[in-house]
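wait is this the right file?? whatever heres the structure
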């Protein structure tokens, strides 16, 4: 259920224009960025406390977010664009896991949530602004949570 809601939220965000537009044809630079990301993934970089996430920018470069200090050996191993961030991926992921555990308490006002690596935050979609305080009191008041409002509908094919 957690994975389904997360994927649905991500698809809705990109479908509604929250993400960057992609061309129909993948560019060679995008392939390089993807290969580098896959290499980082196989090296389990997500476990490091300094790792904040990664995304492909408008120039088709992989941007790696890091928190506090980036080790030189890491920087030399993965030659790409680096950007400092406020929260580690581990911090964001632990909050998403907390939301997943507490979702039954929301009585249906949360329609989606997930990590937004580009913005180094957690996007949460709730049905209306009046439930924002309720979410903060019942689920989490973590400062990286960013709210949007509306209902994500489940579509059956």
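ok assuming it is, sequence goes like this
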């Amino acid at each position: 259920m957690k994975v389904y809601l997360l994927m649905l939220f991500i698809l809705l965000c990109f479908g509604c224009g929250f993400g960057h537009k992609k061309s129909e044809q993948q560019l060679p630079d995008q392939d390089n960025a993807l290969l580098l990301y896959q290499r980082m993934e196989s090296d389990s970089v997500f476990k490091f406390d300094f790792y904040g996430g990664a995304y492909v920018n408008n120039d088709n470069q992989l941007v790696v977010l890091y928190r506090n200090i980036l080790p030189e050996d890491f920087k030399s191993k993965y030659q790409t664009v680096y950007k400092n961030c406020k929260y580690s991926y581990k911090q964001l992921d632990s909050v998403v896991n907390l939301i997943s555990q507490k979702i039954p308490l929301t009585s249906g006002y949360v329609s989606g949530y997930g990590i937004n690596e580009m913005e180094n935050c957690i996007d949460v979609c709730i049905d209306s602004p009046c439930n924002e305080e309720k979410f903060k009191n019942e689920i989490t008041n973590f400062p990286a949570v960013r709210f949007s409002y509306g209902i994500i509908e489940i579509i059956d094919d």
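Confidence is low (pLDDT under 50) at residues 1-26. so i think its the right one actually
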